[in-house]
């Protein structure tokens, strides 16, 4: 196996290689540092690479490996999205409005370290994680390794570009309205938005009024399961998530739907609809019962529930920054909308979540999994939304990604599985939505699809 093959092997396979002595932790880290130095000049996936501290961590990991220590991610590098705290390193949120470096790791980073992971760097984000593209005044644009003229998605765009281009075996993302699933779709990765409260958010608990969660962006389903086993703060399936992913899912009843939630404007592209049709054929061949059935999306869900929570959350995040005057104009525009929503109003909105969840999740009275397109179309071109205001940008980009935010509001798990390339040569996906807290079924079904239609061996032109 050459160095490129090792870079694209994925976290779980690298963990096995480290245990077997096929490679050392310092050598694995240096492999990535070399690739980042050569490739990231074109992509700008990383906001900062933590070279010195990562080297110290890799040496320490190797000493533990040599002493017979065994941890799930011991010596495996991981990239961290730049809205999550890493001790003594700025958390910039894609902005120049940030304050002093945190004095401790976020809890999810602490758990990854306890599992043995080496923190490689912090990945680029759009300002305040607001957009499904990753371009900022402060740090520039992050490019999609499948097409440098296009965005990798967002807000975990740097994480997506890094893993897709072989600049990290795994990355931490966050997802408040699709921010793991969207860049995973357009970068050709497996991305999982876990059940709310599955993966710790501290010290940024209740981000975006409860919409946002942390989760993995990976090359394989096993890698994502490994991440969950290392970070879950509530009991998972018997035997853990890696074991659940490897089990056959049995015969499932699966609903397919390409219906947009009411008030969402847009149209599913031909390639994305073809992917959904192809999923129907494959799932039937795998022995599942497949039906076409639309969820009961309430008409008030988007404008009466999702957007108020998002806008209020953006206002709260902006208010917490010490240099708010440095925010981009369209970020300030969204924050102003959030300021108009009072605490009493947001309390009423959040009190309606059980009714919203009951309506949307009523489809699971009849099926085990819901499948939708991952996105309606492909990504925007770099610079496409320059000089647009906040509301105008949101209106334009939402037509590309109408299928994601609803499941942040309900809190249930959702994953995207790579499904070929569109007519422009950019990856697509299908989105799998599960019952509350049932990541195990999503992982098992995703792994079955992965075995039938492998994707991890695909590498983008810029890698």
What are the SSEs and their pairings?
Blueprint: H1 3-7, H2 11-20, H3 25-43, E1 46-49, H4 51-66, E2 77-81, H5 107-114, E3 118-123, E4 135-136, E5 140-141, H6 157-164, E6 170-175, H7 181-187, E7 190-193, E8 213-218, H8 221-231, H9 241-246, E9 253-256, H10 270-285, E10 289-292, H11 301-319, H12 329-339, H13 343-351, H14 353-361, E11 369-373, H15 390-398, H16 406-410, E12 414-421, E13 427-434, H17 439-452
Parallel strand pairs: 2-3, 2-6, 9-10, 9-11
Antiparallel strand pairs: 1-3, 4-5, 6-8, 7-8, 7-12, 11-13, 12-13
Short recap of the structure:
The protein has 463 residues and is an alpha/beta fold. The chain has 17 helices and 13 strands.
Describe the 3D structure.
An eleven-stranded mixed beta sheet has the order 1-3-2-6-8-7-12-13-11-9-10, with helices on both faces. It has a two-stranded antiparallel sheet with strand order 4-5. Strand 12 (414-421) and strand 13 form a beta hairpin. With 463 residues, it is α/β, with parallel strands linked by helices. It has a single domain (3-452), classed as Amidase signature (AS) domain (Amidase signature (AS) enzymes, Alpha-Beta Complex), CATH 3.90.1300. It is built from 17 helices and 13 strands. The chain is 39% helix and 14% strand. Pfam families: Amidase (PF01425).
